[in-house]
Amino acid sequence: MRIDPSSSRILVTGGAGFLGRHVVQRLRQEGCRDLTVPRSADVDLRDPDATLDLMRQAAPDAVIHLAARVGGIAANRRLPGTFFHDNLMMGVNLMEAARRCRGGKIVLIGTICSYPRMTPVPFREEDLWNGYPEETNAPYGIAKKALLVMLDAYRREHGLSGIYLMPVNLYGPHDNFDPEDSHVIPGLIRRCVEARRAGVGSITCWGTGAATREFLYVEDCAEAIVRATTTYEAAEPMNLGSGREISIRDLAALVAGLTGYKGEILWDTGRPDGQPRRCLDTTRAAAALGWKACTPLEEGLRRTIDWYEKRA
Ligand SMILES: NC(=O)c1ccc[n+]([C@@H]2O[C@H](COP(=O)([O-])OP(=O)(O)OC[C@H]3O[C@@H](n4cnc5c(N)ncnc54)[C@H](OP(=O)(O)O)[C@@H]3O)[C@@H](O)[C@H]2O)c1
Question: Is domain 5-172+215-243+279-295 classified as CATH 3.40.50.300?
């Protein structure tokens, strides 16, 4: 189903969140005027009746489902049951409501955390089912992956229209900088900035620093999501990444340099590294969407640090 943002009614769940606000901004730039952005305080998507009411009232041509419980390794370890339950139930309720209301195209956002722990790099979409995910984020990754199965089942049995996109780790303005729940980049930025301001001689990071990750600037991701919403219609899931793999050790040095922190970076090797390597094959997105991430990591980090420094 092709969606023209300027003449379509679009529901964005989680549209006030980190990725959500960038997707909403992008939709507005593309002329979308009929947007519904519910807040969790008004509509709890874990509640099937509330979700059905929302779907009936919004009557959307497309639903971009960004509502989720997310966080870094610490949050995944502290709340594995919540991450499994909430992410699964929100997606289940949303698709069931769409089925009952004959709702529009569903755009589900998956995660790189769904890939098996030892997936060959770069991760290809075909490798998604070749093993169990990294233990630290398996409940989150499997809940998200189960929604891909449900989407496919509902497409075949009920004719539900939908697509499934899998972004790598995101970063950018409006990210979550909470020390308990943040992902690696906001966590590093916060610690480097605080240590620089306080004149602290060293900071300690989790793990060995040897694990690698790939990062996608949030505005690039929002552009890809909107483009996929408007043009992509296939059962196959799609990776969204920047194509650049970097070790956590090199990332920490980069963030320290860009924040002007000159102290030592120590590694707490008793803490988990998480998945050893992560980097996506983005051939499918390039071919199907004509999309390529355009913000280099250094530039995206500069913008994110600038945003944070002005608010912290
Ligand atoms: N951040 C990343 O690095 C990353 C990477 C890959 C994929 N993703 C995916 O991208 C999506 C957005 O992530 P994000 O980082 O933007 O997360 P986020 O900032 O935490 O935003 C998620 C939003 O979900 C809403 N929400 C949570 N529980 C809800 C509930 N029970 N009912 C209704 N709404 C609820 C919240 O809305 P309120 O503000 O109204 O409370 C929140 O703003 C998620 O699907 C995530 O899995 C994120």
Answer: no
